Amino acid sequence: MINSLIYPALSLGGLGLFFGLLLGFSARKFAVQVDPRIARIKDALPGGNCGGCGYAGCDAYASAVVSGQAAPNKCTAGGAETAEKIAAILGVDAGSFVQKVAFVKCAGSRAKAKEISLYEGVLDCRKATVVPGGGTKACKNGCLGFGSCVTACAFDAISVEDGVAVVDESLCTGCGACVAACPRDVITLIPADQAMRVLCNSTKKGAGVKNICAVGCIGCGLCAKLCPSQAITMKDNLPVINPDLCTRCKICAMKCPARAIVIVEDEKEKQLAG
């Protein structure tokens, strides 16, 4: 009786020992060497996994940097400080870093933009665009205001106020998630220090704009004509400002008959004063 128990136990124990040794040998033989710098770079990253670098999360970016497939200054959430840390780990130059923020090219709130319908569907901009009417507003290039960008933002940097998305630049990392989520291309990434910005996305002109939005750009081109540094060109009836040429003289904003060009520095001062 005892022998009938001992022999099977010894057999199973022997097999367990054999396979354990085999697995241990295999683990050593076929082990994949991981560069320790990957872990160090991962620790230097913010860990938001926002994808702003163009990779599927911080782990993928850290591996790409070590392998030379990505530059050390691509982490939008970490900015210049993180780029310097990564560069120090690799022993390379961090390169230049331009902090960008999301900008909503629309000021057409419910009080200023004409509404033509009532929408009672799912509060998602992408879903609203596929139903007849495509939302409540007459302007088909403006912000829908249903918050797809809010849902996409991992940093709580966007809110919807009176039917228009508003970016809190102090929280925005420039990851671009909101840009990808917007079905109307109303949101774009711009240099954080760009002072002159166009608050309109409509491609209509003149009365075609004024009839549907009180603050839309009418495409008159006056800003481009008056700009002393030739920093403004017109494209699809909208002014495009080249931040590298702009001297922040503010002439475009002061002369714009529609008040569609905003001076961000002045807006921030008003907020602080309020």
Architecture overview:
35% of the residues lie in helices and 12% in strands. It has helices at residues 2-29, 36-44, 58-66, 79-90, 125-128, 148-152, 177-181, 207-210, 222-226, 251-255, 264-273; strands at 100-104, 158-161, 164-167, 187-191, 196-198, 232-235, 238-241, 261-263. It is α+β, with helices and mostly antiparallel strands. A hairpin with a 2-residue loop joins strand 6 and strand 7 (238-241). It has three domains: 36-90, 3-methyladenine DNA Glycosylase II, Chain A, domain 3, CATH 1.10.15; 99-191, Alpha-Beta Plaits, CATH 3.30.70; 194-269, 2-Layer Sandwich (Alpha-Beta Plaits). It contains eleven helices and eight strands.
Q: What is the secondary structure topology, with strand pairs?
A:
Elements: H1 2-29, H2 36-44, H3 58-66, H4 79-90, E1 100-104, H5 125-128, H6 148-152, E2 158-161, E3 164-167, H7 177-181, E4 187-191, E5 196-198, H8 207-210, H9 222-226, E6 232-235, E7 238-241, H10 251-255, E8 261-263, H11 264-273
Antiparallel strand pairs: 1-4, 2-3, 5-8, 6-7
Helix pairs in contact: 2-3, 2-4
